[in-house]
Amino acid sequence: MGENKRLMLAGEWYLPDDPELLADSRRRIQLCAAYDAAVTAPAAERHAILAELLGSVDPSVRVRQPFRCDFGYNISIGAGTFVNFGAVFLDTGAISVGADVQIGPNVQLLTPTHEMDAERRRAGWEKAQPVTIGDNVWLGAGVIVCPGVTIGANTVVGAGAVVTRDLPPGVLAVGNPARVVRELN
Is 47 a catalytic site residue? Predict the structure, then answer.
C-alpha cells in the first residue's frame, strides 16, 4: 500500500492525486457504472455488484440507482437498510450505516475535509473523518451529513437538514445547521 492511501485510511493529511488512489477511483467508476446500468437486472446481480464495490453490504440492503461514492471499500451498510435515488457517499474515510436505516433521495454522507490554509488547500491536501449512522435512523430527502458526524440510533433527520455535529439517539433534528427539536418515543 502506498503512502497516500495509508495516510488516507489513517485519517491523516494526504494528497489524493496519487496513482494508487486514481486506480481505486477507476475501479469505483467502473463498478458504479455497472450498478447503474443494472437497474432492471435481477436483485442477486445488483447485489453482487454492490458486494464487489462496497466494503460490507448485507444481502437485504436496497440501493436505488444512481449511486455515487469515492472508493466504495470504506462503506459498510447494515441489514434492512434502504438507500433512495441519488445518494452520494464520499468515503475517503469510513462510512458506517447501521441496520434498518432509511436514506431519502439525494442524501450526502461526506467524510473528506480540506485544509483551511489556502496554500495547502491549493496544493490539494485533504483528510477524512468518519461518518457513522446508527440503527433505525431515517435521513429525509437532501440531508447532508458532514465529516466526523455520528447520528445515534432511532434518530430522524428532517429533509434538507445539514448535520454538522453529532446527534444523540432517539431525537428529531431539523434545519441548517441541524438542531434537535424534540425527543422521539
Answer: no
